[in-house]
Amino acid sequence: MIVAMVGTRFSGTDGVSLEAAKLAAILEEQGQHVVWFAGELGDRFRPGMVHPPAHFRHSVNRRLEASCFGDGPPPPATFRTLRERTDELKAALRRFLRQHRVDVMVAQNALCLPMQIPLGLAVAETLAETGLPAVAHHHDFVWERERFRRPRVPELLRAAFPPALAGLRHVVIQSAARDELARRRGIAATVLPNVMDFERGPQAGDGRAFRAAAGLRPDDVVLLQPTRVVPRKGIETTLHLAHQLADPHLKVVVSHHEGDEGYAYGRLLRQEADRLGVSLTFAPVSAAPAAGTARPTLADAYAAADLVCYPSRYEGFGNALLEAFYHRRPVLVNRYPVYRRDIAPTGVECIEIDGRLSAGAVDRAAKVLEDPGRWRTAGERNYEVGRRHFSFEVARRRFLPLLAGSPNGSPPPPVGRRAG
Fold it and tell me: Residue 255, exposed/middle/buried by CB under 10 A (0-12, 13-18, 19+)?
């Protein structure tokens, strides 16, 4: 089959891009062909169509988002602009489906989180009009984000985030999202957690290359925060951990770019680091080696990490946490809801906090940093838990059957040939 991955962005190291790439690898090893549609495509997300108006950062979309959320009615031109942008995106999407003769679509977060309302409407309307079999892979829902809790266009959100369509199957990344989707919308979903290729294991990273690129010395102690620079990631907690550990060799290093939700949080973090006397470095990495660039990879960052810090207050699942298990690194984690419900019960061992640093957590972190060998057994155990619960084999068992046929189990029709 020809499988289309559709979203607002497939590039870099955000969770949606990483999970979409993993599913694509699984599909391709099964002999399927994957094509991509988004406002931005990184080098490994090809072949496909780059359509800039589909990006959540597109200037028109930014203005629309401001118009669609907040108090009071939307500005008068909002619905006209929404219709115009939806029609334009739908035309581009249908052109893409025709050109690539698509058999089935996988909508990656485009039908659950309204960061790109016209794209969600375009995808929902295209599926309804063509009958194209599809899977909606939901990483985050509108009701999970504070910034989307005052919609001015609630009827449009209900129509497409997510839509209830006969040929559309739904996949969520954790059990609470499954239960909430059923309660709110009466929609059944399959739980597919984030996964890593635990069967093969990671390629060895180059910790020295990462340290050099980040301007670190060989004897620096790295507290790695492998997350985006957004407030819910709790990066200030890592700064406070470094302050309490009070080691002049400690460096807090963030491995992602700023800017997904503005630059104010990054400025606040720099101010807090200065106040605490803590070294803070932003050293963005690539998800995988890229031709023509010397930028270090995620694997290099984990190889350099003495302790991975994951103090997020909320996560759809927790990709970076699995990456820490995958690379057998010690990890400090906040007991965010999905961790408590879906991850901790599997038997992983982490340095845990409940919302704020405790003296016990700081002491455990200090002991691991003083004697890294004491984590070796826990690292191996976490890896084996990952193999059982969060591996590619889990994705094969749960995801591939959803693409095998239409809702009644029969093979899908060649709808790519009639999508126009």
Answer: buried
DSSP state of 30: T
Contacts of 6 (CB under 8 A, 6+ apart): 36, 37, 38, 93, 105, 106, 107, 108, 110, 123
Confidence of residue 207 (pLDDT cuts 50, 70, 90): very high
* Mean pLDDT taken over the chain: 92
Give the integer Cα–Cα distance in Å for 404 and 31: 13
**Residue-by-residue DSSP string for 71-116:** SSPPPTTHHHHHHHHHHHHHHHHHHHHHHHT-SEEEEESTTTSTTS
Distance between CA atoms of residues 251 and 104, nearest Å: 46
Q: Which helix (H) or strand (E) element contains residue 291?
A: none
- DSSP class per residue in 170-199: EEESSHHHHHHHHHHH----EE----B-TT
Handedness of CA 346, 351, 353, 356 (dihedral sign): negative
Phi, psi torsion values for 140, nearest 5 degrees: -145, 145
Partner residues linked to 190 by β-bridges: 171
- Residue-wise pLDDT for 140-150, tens only, equals 999 988 889 89
For 355-377, how does the pLDDT look when each residue is reduced to its tens digit (9 = 90+)? Answer: 999 999 999 999 999 999 989 99
Provide the CB-side half-sphere exposure for 197 (13 A, CA).
Answer: 13
Average pLDDT over residues 126-152: 94
CB atoms within 10 A of CB 219: 7
Q: Are 154 and 193 in contact (CB under 8 A)?
A: no
Do residues 97 and 132 touch, judged by C-beta distance below 8 A?
Answer: yes
Locate tokens 């990631």: which residue? Answer: 233
> Which pLDDT band, with edges at 50, 70 and 90, does 293 fall under?
low
> Which tokens sit at 396?
């094969």
